Amino acid sequence: MDKMSELVRKPGAMKQLLLASLVILLIGCNPVEQTENKESSEILGEEVFNNNCAVCHGSQGRGLVSNWKVKGADGNYPAPPLNGTAHTWHHSPSQLLYTINEGGIKIGGQMPAFAKRLSEDEKQAVLDYIYSLWPNEIQTKYNKRFK
Questions:
Q1: Residue closest to 111 by CA, chosen among 79, 87, 71
Q2: Helix (H) or strand (E) holding 109
Q3: What is the pLDDT of residue 12?
Q4: What is the CATH number of the domain that holds 115?
Q5: Entry pTM
Q6: Share of the chain above pLDDT 70, in %
Q7: Cβ burial 51-74 (10 Å sphere, 16+ → b, else e)
Q8: Sign of torsion, CA 64 131 46 109?
Q9: Measuring CA to CA, which residue among 74, 64, 129 is closest to residue 100?
């Protein structure tokens, strides 16, 4: 008699075999790859943000001034924080992508256009990174509204 036959004949062995098979099946269906992709996207997004956005929006999107709603000495509003304390989360993903691509100069702002400076993957990664900066409460509101 082979080992498999011996195992199946033992009390509870079939149950253990089925349970082990189920665990293996579920591991194969686990969205670990999606989680790893998201994490790598956020990592890329942080790098792109630090190299292109932090100079105006501050470290970790905290902004550079205490009140971004007040015009500076140059007559322009400063870049708003992107960490969930300003209005960024009020805009849809397509609106945010439009702003990244087109900038704000056409509408009187100071943000340059990044359409040709960043790849599509880099732009999405920046959005993923910005989203990761928001508190859970803001993420939940955003998801209900746009996802």
A1: 79
A2: none
A3: 59
A4: 1.10.760.10
A5: 0.73
A6: 74
A7: ebbbeebbebbebbeeebeeeeee
A8: negative
A9: 129
d(CA 18, CA 67): 61
- pLDDT digits 0-9 by tens, 111-137: 999 999 999 999 999 999 999 999 999
Residue 108 and residue 20: Cα distance in Å, rounded? 62
- Interior CA angle at 38 toward 37 and 39, to 5°? 90
What are the tens digits of pLDDT across the range 94-111?
A: 999 999 999 998 887 899
Give the domain range for residue 48. 32-146
- Banded model confidence at residue 2, pLDDT cuts 50, 70, 90: low
Of the candidates 117, 66, 108, 68, the residue with the CA atom closest to the CA atom of residue 88: 68
Domain count, the chain: 2
